[in-house]
Amino acid sequence: MSAEFILETQRLTKEFKGFVAVSDVDLKVQRGHIHALIGPNGAGKTTFFNLLTKFLHPTSGRIIYNGIDITAGKPAQTARLGIVRSFQISAVFPHMTVLENVRAALQRNLGTSFHFWKSEKTLFPLHQRAHELLAEVDLENFADTLTAELPYGRKRALELATTLALEPELMLLDEPTQGMGHEDVDRVTELIRKVSANRTILMVEHNMSVVASIADRITVLQRGAIIADGPYAEVSKNPLVMEAYMGTTHAALQGAHA
Predict the structure, then answer these.
(1) Residue 191 belongs to some domain of the structure
(2) What CATH code is carried by the domain that includes residue 235?
(3) What value does the mean pLDDT of the chain take?
(4) Considering the domain boundaries, does residue 128 fall inside one?
């Protein structure tokens, strides 16, 4: 695989008792790009993410990351290689402070996550890096706030910080703006743009305005197969994509750049 591409799937397929959820998907993600994976409900996007992060194993096909075949790898191995996923549902500890959440993520890199008997003083060296990460996602003023008290959009920003703490080279973002109001969507969109510096992002996203504004390239799935791939201006005019997005989402697809 060319060094230009950080991730490539070759004829990736996943079947469940005769149902083909992902069908012969050939995807190339260019290093340093924000690459959006879109498609109607049931298109196979989440299954595809589960294959990349090894929560599912493919029926056939290959996954190549940084030139290495990781098809048979396990979730923890994949994360250590630099592929880190942020889930649809906010995955933070509600009864810890914002700073403590980021510090816990940093501990994973030290291999001390479960050393509960150690003094909290041993964690102080992590504070500076935790504060840097909070600043990166505009949460430095919320460091001592209990996570349960954060507004929803800020919780998603915190999740982004905990993902960054694992030092990903490839970030997989699963519906990062789901359930947000307009103001939070705009804030998180800008954060994604900001944290994409020196990283590659592959994101599943339903909000076409978000996709249109930040994605360098878009791949469209329908019934588990790719029906279009390219820049937004090209993909949004594709007749197959228009047909797949008939109705309100189709209107959104056309109006995202308006």
Answers:
(1) no
(2) 3.40.50.300
(3) 88
(4) no
